[in-house]
Amino acid sequence: MSTPVLQLDNVTMRFGGVVALREAKISIAPGEIFALIGPNGAGKTTVFNVVTGVYQPTEGQVLFNGTRIDGTKRFKITKLGIARTFQNIRLFHNMSALENVMVGADAHHKTGAIGATLNLPWHRKEEKRGRELARELLDFVGIPGRMTETAKNLPYGDQRRLEIARALATDPKLLLLDEPAAGMNPAEKEALQALIRKIRDSGRTVLLIEHDMSLVMGVSDRVAVLDFGQLIAEGLPHEVQTNPRVIEAYLGVSEDAS
Amino acid sequence: MKGNGVTGNANPLRRVGALVDGARDWWEHAKAWQRYAVYLGAVVFALILPAPAIGTFMSPGSDWTTVLIYPIGTYILLAVGLNVVVGQAGLLDLGFVAFFAMGGYSVAYFGTEYGWNYWATAVMGIAMAAVSGVILGAPTLRLRGDYLAIVTLGFGEIVRITANNTDEIGGARGITNVPHPTDIPGVVDFGLLPAPYYYLIVIAIVLVIIFSVRLQKSRVGRAWAAIREDEDAAELMGVPTFKFKLLAFAIGAMIGGLAGGLHAGRAVFIEPNTFPFILSATILAAVVLGGAGNLPGVILGAFVIAWLPERFREVNWLKDLLGRDPAEYRILLFGGVLVLMMALRPEGLLPSRRRKAELHEGTGGMGTMGAEVTGPDTDVSTEAAK
């Protein structure tokens, strides 16, 4: 078996007396769409924060393509190839859609103050490439023609797509989506499902947090269930769906809703 | 947003404000040749500005060209420098005068003690200011908001007090006989006449503006804007935030150092009290009053802040009205005008659209990571704001 893209090795995350994550073991294979589900406060976003370097795990290791990344600075983790979106949208609200995506693209650019002030050729080349990439990505996520719009003036669903475009601009091998369907209508959710598949098909691995069960069951290859910081089940979507512990903790409540 | 477009028409200053906003919209969609025409117009304007005909109105009490160099030109240069730090990167710096002092003292010290060529000392001044910016920034830029402001405030005072207590650089007596800029034979002689210094500072301002605009439009400027809006999100999108904040500090410091070097080369004499805290505050006021983050605004702000106290030295109708010299009251008048302007245009005289919006939102983005409990209200408000 090939090296997993992401591996959480007995990761525990403690905040004072609160254990947000207890000895979590997750392993995601390349090209997978992996969903992380669980009731509110189960520790799903904590997983994202540990993986992207926002938190350093109290115990355990995080491995990305076999290399240890816990304790690495956040922007370096992004450069290594992990990008994320946020549960509550965190775009650069007053920048245009295009500029938002270009910030992501800049992650791999080298221009510094000197190149920019002297308007050196490679700076111009990078700018041009960044702008082209941003255009392509806005097209890819399905919001072309919105380039000059200020981010906060975009409709909610488009803001979520813009966040995905911004994350994709950093050219991630692993993309973390934190409740991408929150606040979307059924049509938008369907389009999102297609988009997530398209992202996977472009050679990336996707780790997804989502409450919308039809989306999770429809799109994911494997599902892990967190409850009170503990991994209580993992497997194929239909296996998880019928697991009695999961039904008890989670699906038993939300089955009616979905 | 809050209805000032409708009700504000009764207020003449608001109407001026609407005109200004209209000009900004025009500028955003202006064609390249139109922009170059404006640039050319600005340069021509700067060249004829010292004309006596303008001077008699602008500065009846003192020599207009001298006023144009100091305080006006120097303040503009300093404000453009501080704008990089405050306006673009969103870092509150209350000790900017320290870098002005670094430039001034470098020019004075290396010029008098070692007899260096002025231009070499000026470059040295810029370098020294940059180094001191990095030395100050490296340990402190991990702080945010208020804490950074306090540390920079302290730094400004430390530099001044150190200069005051160091005999090597003249102590409280300062340094006299700082050499003038070296003459460029056949082109320009730097002597006691103010005109060459004026054109020198105009060149410096133009260069600094060009650099500043280019930075703003580049990856560097985008990174600064991203940091200003949401530092955590910026870091997670691959922006090395600490490095870019340090860069903003260093670039701002270099511009401050340049201004200091120019000042020392003309004034011939500098002392610790040339660099008081109040100057930091004044330049910050210029940046905020003009509209932080927007260069034309910042330049206008610096001009107003530098010019008004000079203008108030000679106001004849006030002299008749009060029966005594208004020069004694000029700072009071100045303060009144500042309060009035901030009350009428709280975002600054010429704010950038983006900064204006940020100010209305309140925070510069100390948001949450998502693990905390977050209500849907933030999203609702952005939806409703459309």
In short:
The complex is a heterodimer of chains A (258) and B (386). Chain A is α/β, with parallel strands linked by helices and 258 residues long.
Explain the overall architecture.
The complex is a heterodimer of chains A (258) and B (386). Chain A is of the alpha/beta class and 258 residues long. Chain A has two domains: 1-81 and 173-258, 3-Layer(aba) Sandwich (Rossmann fold); 91-171, no CATH class. Chain A is 40% helix and 23% strand. Chain A has a six-stranded mixed sheet, sandwiched between helices. In chain A, helix 3 (97-105) runs parallel beside helix 6 and helix 5 (121-140) packs across helix 6. The longest helix of chain A is centred in the middle third of the chain and has 20 residues, at 121-140. Chain A starts with 5 loop residues before the first strand and ends with a helix. With 386 residues, chain B is an all-alpha fold. Chain B has a domain at 60-277. In chain B, 69% of the residues lie in helices and 0% in strands. The chains are: A alpha/beta (258), B mainly alpha (386).
Any chance you could write out the topology, listing elements then pairs?
The complex is a heterodimer of chains A (258) and B (386).
Chain A: E1 6-15, E2 18-28, E3 33-37, H1 44-51, E4 59-64, E5 67-68, H2 74-80, E6 82-84, H3 97-105, H4 113-117, H5 121-140, H6 156-169, E7 174-178, H7 186-201, E8 205-209, H8 213-219, E9 222-227, E10 230-235, H9 237-242, H10 244-254
Chain B: H1 4-7, H2 12-28, H3 32-48, H4 52-58, H5 64-88, H6 97-113, H7 118-140, H8 146-165, H9 195-217, H10 219-229, H11 231-236, H12 241-267, H13 277-290, H14 295-311, H15 316-322, H16 330-344, H17 353-361, H18 377-384
